[in-house]
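User: Can you help me understand a structure? I only have the sequence.
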Amino acid sequence: MRLLIVIVNYRTAGLTIGALESLEGEVGPLDARVVVVDGGSGDGSAETLAEEVRRRGWSAWAHVMPLGENRGFAFGNNAAIRPALLAPDAPEMVLLLNPDTVVRPGALAAMTAFMQTHPRVGIVGPRLEELDGTPQRSAFRFHSILGEFERGARLGPVSRLLHRWVVAPPERTEPHRTDWVSGACLLVHRKVLEQVGLLDDGYFMYYEETDLCRRAARAGWECWYLPAPRVAHLVARASGGRPIPVHGLESRRRYFVKNHGRVYAAAADAAWACGHLLWRVRRALQRRPEIDPPRMLSDFLRHSVFGAGFRIEGRP
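Assistant: Let's start by predicting it. Here is the structure, written out as tokens:
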């Protein structure tokens, strides 16, 4: 069984080294190789990582692929995946792994074994957790109009009423089929990529894994969440720890327009905005402190289908 692990680095060399350290004892039994793609960091990251790989004796299973520019998460992953799939010794599986992760012992072996023994499973995700073991929500439902209203409202009664559409439901303790899993650690079978294509690099960051899982589901592949294999995820460290930036809103719009059409996307945008206004009214009545970033609603509307003038999104 051959496994390709891709880590996309952008000015996070220290985190990437930590991720590689966690892989050191895991790659041998899996015939795995790791490609660290540096997305034009321009801060010496590529050189630092290449030297660290050499110094620590990791060259047998890891190498650094420097790119001249930063064109996002999907583009960086595809830069490593595309030539690997064309090689004579193409991997059977590909693991997308964030630099802000620490892979727990045995996690990769458990994920790959599950995929090998379940032929219709094309995508697998592990339990993501904090460094102290606190679980993060790691299995998700596809985004919908009602789900967007619930995300905007963030109110207990609304969430209970719309529990079937909540995008990030509470974690479960048993393996189960799910709509999509986080791209922080996502295992995909080569046959899925050959059938539905690589990541859509029209997404700069966010929603690219959701899009991939949706395309796989439409092609008949199953996506599963496994709670036993565990990966620590230092949430948002690789993206600077900021609230979802502009390219996150752009990716959200692209996802809805591409997968559901402009009318559905407009309804989803309106649903989120209405839910958010409901949240703001409640916050004002209860005199709660502001927790959202400045201009959240105006930024959202500016990058929604309304602000974008219903322009048609390109396809990969």
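Now, to help you interpret it: Confidence is low (pLDDT under 50) at residues 310-316. The radius of gyration is 20 Å. Let me know which part you'd like to focus on.
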